[in-house]
């Protein structure tokens, strides 16, 4: 009963998956490569080895281990804006929820370490993440999105005094956490296009980026800067989102455009970048966000706006995977 003759008993397709086969006192230990196989095919493979090797003369026991696939690292998508207050965190939270509703396994890192707002937006304020080994275990929101934020680790306002290296070390911990099983990790970047952002992009290498802007000219100039920042990464831009467009008066129903309208779509066209959608300025969106009820989790008009944006991001993910 030599090792080669035992392998020869196996069909070629099974033998090709044998990574190691050892015999000792009638006990045969086989390690198989199960990568790319679903659970039932793995079980069939294991059964076949057990039977065919077990039938050989002199074999008293067959021990089979099938190596699992190395878990794939999540695809990181950064959400950025050239300037603060344009709704980057609101978009990130709702995009995450909308992608989760589509069946994606979504994680979210609040990289806005100086002003973390994701615990409020996704209703996980006060939750403390546990650590397993050296790494943090993400917090589960009730919207199907796993998340980590500096807001989960320090008292509000405490991180404000941190300087560059400390801040980037803290962010590294949030990204290098137990994101097992997560397929797409949204990164809510801090506002701006300075060194902090550049270092983040170069260190964590997002696969793509979404830029959010309000439609007025000044914000658009900043959005252009964000596009330049991603180009430096280099991080491909998935597309631009226009936020705070078209305010519908809750009293008279008249639609006005406090920040203008359509500016982001034309800026996207001019830059040859996809336009992903337009989020209206609504009081209910702000109130729901402050109350930890992301509108994307509901079934109103705004939910369908976020669902449509998520659909485009999801198409991008599919194309990338193909
Ligand atoms: N479409 C909208 N309609 C109404 N309010 C909105 C809309 N988008 C965002 N807001 C509100 O504007 C404020 C700023 O939004 P948000 O925190 O998402 O912006 P940000 O770009 O992430 O800001 P920061 O620079 O602080 O990170 C929040 O109070 C939010 O609820």
UniProtKB/TrEMBL annotation:
A molecular function (GO) term: ATP hydrolysis activity
InterPro entries reported for this sequence: Mrp/NBP35_ATP-bd, NUBPL-like, P-loop_NTPase, YlxH/NBP35
Q: Where does ATP bind?
A: 82-89
The superkingdom of the source organism is Bacteria
Gene3D superfamilies linked to this entry: P-loop containing nucleotide triphosphate hydrolases
Q: Which GO terms describe its biological process?
A: iron-sulfur cluster assembly
Subunit comment: Homodimer.
Q: Which family does it belong to?
A: Belongs to the Mrp/NBP35 ATP-binding proteins family.
- Known function: Binds and transfers iron-sulfur (Fe-S) clusters to target apoproteins. Can hydrolyze ATP.
Task: Name the chain's protein.
Answer: Iron-sulfur cluster carrier protein
Lineage, opening ranks: Bacteria, Pseudomonadati, Pseudomonadota, Alphaproteobacteria, Sphingomonadales
């Amino acid at each position: 009963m030599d090792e080669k003759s035992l392998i020869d008993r196996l069909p070629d397709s099974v033998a090709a998956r044998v990574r190691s086969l050892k015999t000792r006192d009638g006990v045969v230990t086989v390690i198989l490569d199960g990568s790319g196989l679903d659970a039932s095919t793995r079980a069939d493979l294991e059964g076949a080895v057990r039977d065919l090797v077990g039938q050989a003369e002199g074999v008293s026991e067959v021990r089979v281990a099938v190596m699992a696939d190395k878990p794939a690292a999540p695809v990181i998508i950064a959400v950025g804006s050239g300037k603060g207050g344009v709704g980057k965190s609101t978009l990130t939270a709702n995009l995450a929820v909308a992608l989760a509703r589509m069946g994606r396994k979504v994680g979210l890192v609040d990289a806005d370490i100086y002003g973390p707002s994701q615990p409020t937006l996704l209703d996980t304020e006060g939750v403390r993440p546990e650590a397993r080994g050296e790494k943090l275990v993400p917090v589960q929101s009730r919207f199907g999105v796993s998340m980590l934020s500096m807001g989960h680790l320090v008292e509000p306002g405490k991180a404000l005094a941190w300087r560059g290296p400390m801040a980037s070390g803290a962010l590294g911990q949030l990204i290098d956490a137990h994101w097992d099983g997560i397929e797409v990790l949204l990164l809510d970047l801090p506002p701006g296009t300075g060194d902090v952002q550049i270092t983040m992009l170069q260190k964590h290498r997002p696969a793509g980026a979404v830029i959010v802007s309000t439609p007025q000219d000044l914000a658009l100039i900043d959005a252009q800067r964000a596009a330049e920042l991603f180009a430096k990464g280099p991080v491909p831009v998935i597309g631009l989102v226009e936020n705070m467009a078209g305010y519908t008066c809750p009293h008279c129903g008249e639609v006005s455009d406090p920040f203008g309208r359509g500016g982001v779509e034309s800026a996207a066209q001019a830059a040859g970048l996809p336009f992903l959608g337009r989020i209206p300025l609504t009081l209910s969106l702000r109130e729901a966000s402050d109350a930890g009820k992301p509108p994307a989790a509901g079934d109103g008009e705004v939910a369908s706006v976020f669902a449509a944006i998520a659909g485009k991001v999801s198409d991008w993910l599919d194309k990338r995977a193909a």
